[in-house]
Amino acid sequence: MTVQQIQLDAYLGLAFDRIPVAMIVVNPEGQITRLNQLAETTFGYQSEELIGKKVETLIPERYRHAHPSFRHGFLSAPSARPMGAGRDLSGRRKDGSEFPVEIGINPVETGEGPMILSVILDLSERKQSEQRIQSALQQKDLLLREVHHRVKNNLQVIHSLLDLQALKIRDHELVGMLRDSQNRIRSMSLIHQTLYQSHDFAQVDFDQFLTALLPRLMESYESTAGHVAIHIRAKEVKLPINEAIPCGLIVNELVSNALKHGFQQQQRGSIWVDIRQDSSDTVELSISNDGAPIPEGLDLQQSGTLGLQLVHLLTQQLHAELQVQRTLPTRFTLRFQIGMPT
Question: Is the pTM of this model over 0.70?
Protein backbone atom coordinates (compact mmCIF):
# COMPACT_ATOMS: atom_id res chain seq x y z
CA MET A 1 0.00 0.00 0.00
CA THR A 2 1.42 3.38 -0.99
CA VAL A 3 1.82 6.35 1.32
CA GLN A 4 -0.94 8.14 -0.64
CA GLN A 5 -3.34 5.22 -0.13
CA ILE A 6 -2.57 5.14 3.61
CA GLN A 7 -3.22 8.89 3.82
CA LEU A 8 -6.48 8.51 1.85
CA ASP A 9 -7.68 5.67 4.09
CA ALA A 10 -6.86 7.76 7.16
CA TYR A 11 -8.83 10.70 5.71
CA LEU A 12 -11.83 8.51 4.89
CA GLY A 13 -11.68 6.98 8.35
CA LEU A 14 -11.77 10.43 9.91
CA ALA A 15 -14.76 11.39 7.74
CA PHE A 16 -16.52 8.11 8.59
CA ASP A 17 -16.25 8.91 12.30
CA ARG A 18 -17.45 12.49 11.90
CA ILE A 19 -20.51 11.87 9.71
CA PRO A 20 -23.54 12.93 11.83
CA VAL A 21 -25.43 9.65 11.38
CA ALA A 22 -24.79 6.25 12.89
CA MET A 23 -22.97 3.95 10.44
CA ILE A 24 -22.06 0.28 10.78
CA VAL A 25 -20.16 -1.91 8.30
CA VAL A 26 -21.03 -5.63 8.25
CA ASN A 27 -19.38 -8.46 6.31
CA PRO A 28 -21.38 -11.12 4.37
CA GLU A 29 -21.32 -13.39 7.46
CA GLY A 30 -23.10 -10.69 9.48
CA GLN A 31 -20.08 -9.72 11.58
CA ILE A 32 -19.54 -6.06 12.43
CA THR A 33 -16.23 -4.86 11.00
CA ARG A 34 -16.49 -1.17 11.68
CA LEU A 35 -18.76 1.47 13.27
CA ASN A 36 -18.45 5.20 13.73
CA GLN A 37 -18.61 7.27 16.90
CA LEU A 38 -22.31 8.13 16.57
CA ALA A 39 -23.13 4.43 16.26
CA GLU A 40 -21.27 3.86 19.54
CA THR A 41 -23.28 6.64 21.19
CA THR A 42 -26.58 5.45 19.68
CA PHE A 43 -26.24 1.85 20.85
CA GLY A 44 -24.21 2.48 24.01
CA TYR A 45 -21.23 0.29 23.08
CA GLN A 46 -17.54 0.93 22.54
CA SER A 47 -16.20 -0.17 19.15
CA GLU A 48 -14.08 -2.96 20.63
CA GLU A 49 -17.20 -4.48 22.21
CA LEU A 50 -18.88 -4.92 18.82
CA ILE A 51 -16.10 -5.54 16.28
CA GLY A 52 -16.36 -9.21 15.25
CA LYS A 53 -19.79 -9.63 16.87
CA LYS A 54 -22.90 -10.50 14.91
CA VAL A 55 -24.98 -7.51 13.90
CA GLU A 56 -28.00 -9.29 15.42
CA THR A 57 -26.57 -8.11 18.78
CA LEU A 58 -28.12 -4.73 17.95
CA ILE A 59 -31.55 -6.17 17.09
CA PRO A 60 -34.30 -7.03 19.62
CA GLU A 61 -34.23 -10.75 20.41
CA ARG A 62 -37.69 -11.45 18.95
CA TYR A 63 -36.46 -10.38 15.48
CA ARG A 64 -33.00 -11.97 15.48
CA HIS A 65 -33.97 -15.35 14.04
CA ALA A 66 -35.28 -13.82 10.81
CA HIS A 67 -32.50 -11.34 10.20
CA PRO A 68 -29.90 -13.69 8.57
CA SER A 69 -32.34 -14.64 5.82
CA PHE A 70 -32.99 -10.94 5.12
CA ARG A 71 -29.25 -10.35 4.88
CA HIS A 72 -28.78 -13.25 2.48
CA GLY A 73 -31.64 -11.94 0.35
CA PHE A 74 -29.95 -8.56 0.16
CA LEU A 75 -26.61 -10.07 -0.79
CA SER A 76 -28.23 -12.07 -3.60
CA ALA A 77 -29.36 -8.82 -5.26
CA PRO A 78 -27.39 -6.00 -3.60
CA SER A 79 -28.62 -2.45 -4.16
CA ALA A 80 -29.02 0.66 -2.05
CA ARG A 81 -32.45 0.59 -0.41
CA PRO A 82 -34.27 1.09 2.89
CA MET A 83 -34.29 -1.88 5.20
CA GLY A 84 -37.67 -3.34 6.13
CA ALA A 85 -39.67 -1.01 3.88
CA GLY A 86 -43.17 -0.57 5.28
CA ARG A 87 -42.28 -2.05 8.67
CA ASP A 88 -41.50 -0.42 12.00
CA LEU A 89 -37.90 -1.26 12.91
CA SER A 90 -36.30 -1.20 16.34
CA GLY A 91 -32.73 -1.16 17.59
CA ARG A 92 -31.48 -2.59 20.91
CA ARG A 93 -29.04 -0.71 23.11
CA LYS A 94 -26.43 -2.27 25.39
CA ASP A 95 -28.72 -1.72 28.40
CA GLY A 96 -31.47 -3.73 26.69
CA SER A 97 -33.71 -0.77 25.90
CA GLU A 98 -35.28 -0.57 22.47
CA PHE A 99 -35.78 2.47 20.23
CA PRO A 100 -37.35 3.09 16.81
CA VAL A 101 -34.96 3.28 13.87
CA GLU A 102 -34.87 3.86 10.15
CA ILE A 103 -32.10 1.98 8.29
CA GLY A 104 -30.66 2.36 4.83
CA ILE A 105 -28.44 -0.46 3.55
CA ASN A 106 -25.85 -0.13 0.80
CA PRO A 107 -23.43 -2.63 -0.79
CA VAL A 108 -19.80 -1.41 -0.70
CA GLU A 109 -16.63 -2.85 -2.14
CA THR A 110 -13.60 -2.75 0.16
CA GLY A 111 -10.07 -4.11 0.12
CA GLU A 112 -11.43 -6.91 2.32
CA GLY A 113 -14.20 -7.83 -0.12
CA PRO A 114 -17.88 -6.89 -0.39
CA MET A 115 -19.48 -5.39 2.71
CA ILE A 116 -22.83 -3.99 3.78
CA LEU A 117 -22.94 -0.38 4.99
CA SER A 118 -25.89 0.35 7.26
CA VAL A 119 -26.92 3.96 7.91
CA ILE A 120 -29.08 4.16 11.05
CA LEU A 121 -31.35 7.01 12.13
CA ASP A 122 -32.62 7.09 15.70
CA LEU A 123 -36.31 8.06 15.43
CA SER A 124 -36.92 8.41 19.16
CA GLU A 125 -37.31 12.20 19.09
CA ARG A 126 -39.45 12.07 15.94
CA LYS A 127 -41.76 9.44 17.47
CA GLN A 128 -42.01 11.47 20.68
CA SER A 129 -42.90 14.56 18.64
CA GLU A 130 -45.53 12.59 16.74
CA GLN A 131 -46.98 11.35 20.00
CA ARG A 132 -47.09 14.90 21.38
CA ILE A 133 -48.83 16.10 18.21
CA GLN A 134 -51.29 13.21 18.38
CA SER A 135 -51.98 13.98 22.03
CA ALA A 136 -52.55 17.65 21.20
CA LEU A 137 -54.93 16.69 18.40
CA GLN A 138 -56.86 14.42 20.73
CA GLN A 139 -57.12 17.22 23.29
CA LYS A 140 -58.33 19.60 20.57
CA ASP A 141 -60.85 16.99 19.45
CA LEU A 142 -62.15 16.64 23.01
CA LEU A 143 -62.29 20.43 23.39
CA LEU A 144 -64.29 20.82 20.18
CA ARG A 145 -66.68 18.08 21.24
CA GLU A 146 -67.18 19.82 24.58
CA VAL A 147 -67.73 23.21 22.88
CA HIS A 148 -70.36 21.83 20.49
CA HIS A 149 -71.99 19.89 23.32
CA ARG A 150 -72.21 22.97 25.55
CA VAL A 151 -73.52 25.19 22.73
CA LYS A 152 -76.18 22.60 21.93
CA ASN A 153 -77.18 22.31 25.59
CA ASN A 154 -77.32 26.10 26.06
CA LEU A 155 -79.52 26.46 23.00
CA GLN A 156 -81.80 23.73 24.34
CA VAL A 157 -82.08 25.64 27.63
CA ILE A 158 -83.16 28.76 25.71
CA HIS A 159 -85.65 26.63 23.76
CA SER A 160 -87.12 25.34 27.04
CA LEU A 161 -87.35 28.86 28.52
CA LEU A 162 -89.30 30.04 25.47
CA ASP A 163 -91.53 27.00 25.86
CA LEU A 164 -92.32 27.95 29.47
CA GLN A 165 -92.97 31.54 28.43
CA ALA A 166 -95.36 30.44 25.67
CA LEU A 167 -97.43 28.46 28.20
CA LYS A 168 -98.16 31.71 30.09
CA ILE A 169 -99.26 33.73 27.06
CA ARG A 170 -102.85 33.81 25.72
CA ASP A 171 -102.11 35.89 22.61
CA HIS A 172 -102.01 33.31 19.77
CA GLU A 173 -100.02 35.58 17.47
CA LEU A 174 -97.35 36.14 20.13
CA VAL A 175 -97.25 32.39 20.90
CA GLY A 176 -96.70 31.75 17.18
CA MET A 177 -93.75 34.17 17.17
CA LEU A 178 -92.23 32.36 20.15
CA ARG A 179 -92.71 29.01 18.41
CA ASP A 180 -90.94 30.35 15.31
CA SER A 181 -88.03 31.50 17.50
CA GLN A 182 -87.92 28.06 19.10
CA ASN A 183 -87.66 26.45 15.67
CA ARG A 184 -84.75 28.72 14.74
CA ILE A 185 -82.95 27.85 17.96
CA ARG A 186 -83.61 24.16 17.42
CA SER A 187 -82.16 24.40 13.91
CA MET A 188 -78.87 25.84 15.27
CA SER A 189 -78.85 23.32 18.11
CA LEU A 190 -79.22 20.40 15.69
CA ILE A 191 -76.23 21.60 13.67
CA HIS A 192 -74.06 21.51 16.80
CA GLN A 193 -75.52 18.12 17.74
CA THR A 194 -74.66 16.79 14.27
CA LEU A 195 -71.08 18.02 14.69
CA TYR A 196 -70.85 16.60 18.22
CA GLN A 197 -71.85 13.17 16.93
CA SER A 198 -69.55 13.44 13.92
CA HIS A 199 -65.95 12.33 13.39
CA ASP A 200 -65.27 15.49 11.38
CA PHE A 201 -65.72 18.81 13.17
CA ALA A 202 -64.92 20.78 10.02
CA GLN A 203 -67.97 19.56 8.09
CA VAL A 204 -71.69 19.19 8.83
CA ASP A 205 -73.38 16.20 7.22
CA PHE A 206 -76.36 18.13 5.84
CA ASP A 207 -78.41 15.04 5.02
CA GLN A 208 -78.16 13.92 8.64
CA PHE A 209 -79.05 17.44 9.82
CA LEU A 210 -82.13 17.75 7.56
CA THR A 211 -83.32 14.26 8.49
CA ALA A 212 -83.33 15.34 12.15
CA LEU A 213 -84.73 18.86 11.62
CA LEU A 214 -87.62 18.52 9.20
CA PRO A 215 -89.75 15.88 11.00
CA ARG A 216 -89.55 17.97 14.19
CA LEU A 217 -90.46 21.09 12.22
CA MET A 218 -93.54 19.30 10.86
CA GLU A 219 -94.62 18.54 14.42
CA SER A 220 -94.70 22.27 15.17
CA TYR A 221 -97.50 22.80 12.64
CA GLU A 222 -100.29 20.50 13.73
CA SER A 223 -102.68 21.71 11.00
CA THR A 224 -100.51 20.09 8.30
CA ALA A 225 -99.79 16.83 10.16
CA GLY A 226 -100.56 13.85 7.93
CA HIS A 227 -101.37 16.04 4.93
CA VAL A 228 -97.97 17.30 3.77
CA ALA A 229 -95.03 15.07 2.85
CA ILE A 230 -91.43 16.29 3.00
CA HIS A 231 -88.78 14.90 0.64
CA ILE A 232 -85.05 15.38 1.27
CA ARG A 233 -82.29 15.09 -1.32
CA ALA A 234 -78.93 15.90 0.23
CA LYS A 235 -76.62 12.95 -0.44
CA GLU A 236 -72.88 13.52 0.01
CA VAL A 237 -73.30 17.19 1.01
CA LYS A 238 -70.97 18.33 3.78
CA LEU A 239 -70.80 22.00 4.69
CA PRO A 240 -68.43 23.96 6.96
CA ILE A 241 -70.20 25.33 10.02
CA ASN A 242 -69.99 28.92 8.66
CA GLU A 243 -72.18 27.86 5.74
CA ALA A 244 -74.17 25.16 7.54
CA ILE A 245 -75.79 27.47 10.12
CA PRO A 246 -77.18 30.06 7.65
CA CYS A 247 -78.26 27.27 5.29
CA GLY A 248 -79.99 25.48 8.16
CA LEU A 249 -81.81 28.66 9.17
CA ILE A 250 -82.87 29.36 5.57
CA VAL A 251 -84.32 25.85 5.29
CA ASN A 252 -86.07 26.36 8.63
CA GLU A 253 -87.65 29.66 7.50
CA LEU A 254 -88.75 28.58 4.03
CA VAL A 255 -90.17 25.22 5.11
CA SER A 256 -91.97 26.94 8.00
CA ASN A 257 -93.44 29.50 5.58
CA ALA A 258 -94.62 26.74 3.27
CA LEU A 259 -96.27 24.86 6.13
CA LYS A 260 -97.96 28.01 7.48
CA HIS A 261 -99.10 29.64 4.24
CA GLY A 262 -98.96 27.06 1.46
CA PHE A 263 -101.16 24.31 2.89
CA GLN A 264 -104.21 25.70 4.63
CA GLN A 265 -107.52 23.97 5.40
CA GLN A 266 -105.77 20.57 5.44
CA GLN A 267 -104.69 20.84 1.83
CA ARG A 268 -102.53 17.91 0.77
CA GLY A 269 -99.17 18.31 -0.91
CA SER A 270 -95.41 17.98 -0.75
CA ILE A 271 -92.33 19.98 0.14
CA TRP A 272 -88.94 19.21 -1.40
CA VAL A 273 -85.60 20.22 0.11
CA ASP A 274 -82.85 19.60 -2.41
CA ILE A 275 -79.19 20.54 -1.84
CA ARG A 276 -76.31 19.65 -4.15
CA GLN A 277 -72.59 20.30 -4.03
CA ASP A 278 -70.32 20.01 -7.07
CA SER A 279 -66.59 19.35 -7.33
CA SER A 280 -65.80 23.09 -7.33
CA ASP A 281 -67.62 23.51 -3.96
CA THR A 282 -70.53 25.39 -5.51
CA VAL A 283 -73.70 24.63 -3.57
CA GLU A 284 -77.27 24.83 -4.85
CA LEU A 285 -80.03 24.78 -2.24
CA SER A 286 -83.63 24.51 -3.41
CA ILE A 287 -86.81 24.53 -1.28
CA SER A 288 -90.01 24.01 -3.25
CA ASN A 289 -93.65 23.06 -2.63
CA ASP A 290 -96.83 22.43 -4.59
CA GLY A 291 -99.06 24.39 -2.23
CA ALA A 292 -100.61 27.83 -2.68
CA PRO A 293 -98.51 30.12 -4.89
CA ILE A 294 -96.90 33.37 -3.74
CA PRO A 295 -99.23 36.24 -4.69
CA GLU A 296 -97.93 38.29 -7.65
CA GLY A 297 -98.45 41.51 -5.75
CA LEU A 298 -96.32 40.50 -2.76
CA ASP A 299 -92.93 42.22 -2.76
CA LEU A 300 -90.63 39.66 -1.15
CA GLN A 301 -87.83 42.22 -0.72
CA GLN A 302 -90.11 44.50 1.32
CA SER A 303 -92.00 41.77 3.16
CA GLY A 304 -92.61 42.67 6.79
CA THR A 305 -92.31 39.08 8.02
CA LEU A 306 -89.23 38.28 10.08
CA GLY A 307 -88.82 34.92 8.30
CA LEU A 308 -88.33 36.40 4.82
CA GLN A 309 -86.16 39.20 6.20
CA LEU A 310 -83.92 36.53 7.74
CA VAL A 311 -83.77 34.65 4.42
CA HIS A 312 -82.55 37.79 2.61
CA LEU A 313 -80.01 38.62 5.35
CA LEU A 314 -78.65 35.07 5.41
CA THR A 315 -78.48 35.02 1.61
CA GLN A 316 -76.30 38.12 1.75
CA GLN A 317 -74.15 36.52 4.46
CA LEU A 318 -73.51 33.55 2.16
CA HIS A 319 -72.83 35.85 -0.82
CA ALA A 320 -75.48 33.76 -2.53
CA GLU A 321 -77.68 34.32 -5.55
CA LEU A 322 -81.40 33.89 -4.75
CA GLN A 323 -84.01 33.04 -7.37
CA VAL A 324 -87.73 32.79 -6.64
CA GLN A 325 -90.35 30.95 -8.66
CA ARG A 326 -93.80 31.94 -7.37
CA THR A 327 -95.86 28.99 -8.62
CA LEU A 328 -95.97 25.53 -10.26
CA PRO A 329 -94.20 24.80 -7.96
CA THR A 330 -93.23 27.58 -5.57
CA ARG A 331 -89.44 27.42 -5.37
CA PHE A 332 -86.61 29.31 -3.67
CA THR A 333 -83.16 28.51 -5.10
CA LEU A 334 -79.84 29.69 -3.66
CA ARG A 335 -76.42 29.24 -5.22
CA PHE A 336 -73.22 30.08 -3.40
CA GLN A 337 -69.56 29.21 -3.23
CA ILE A 338 -68.15 27.55 -0.10
CA GLY A 339 -65.35 29.50 1.58
CA MET A 340 -66.45 33.01 0.68
CA PRO A 341 -65.61 35.50 3.49
CA THR A 342 -68.64 36.26 5.66
Answer: no
Exposed/middle/buried for residue 80 (C-beta within 10 Å: 0-12, 13-18, 19+): exposed
Strands (E), 63-144: 81-82, 89-92, 98-110, 113-122
What percent of the residues of the chain are helix, what percent strand, and what percent coil, each to the nearest 5? 50, 25, 30
What is the number of structural domains in the chain?
3
Name the CA radius of gyration of the chain, rounded: 35
Q: Which of 197, 228, 246 is the last residue of a domain?
A: 197
Q: Are residues 118 and 214 in the same domain?
A: no
Farthest-apart Cα atoms in the chain, separation = 112
Q: From the CB of residue 188, how many other CB atoms can be counted at a distance below 10 Å?
A: 19
Examine the domain organization and report whether 118 and 160 are in the same domain. Answer: no
- Residue 151 domain boundaries: 132-197
Residue-wise pLDDT for 92-149, tens only, equals: 999 999 999 999 988 888 777 788 888 999 988 888 888 887 877 777 777 767 777 7
Whether residue 145 is contained in a domain is answered as yes
Contact (CB, 8 A) for 35 and 25: yes
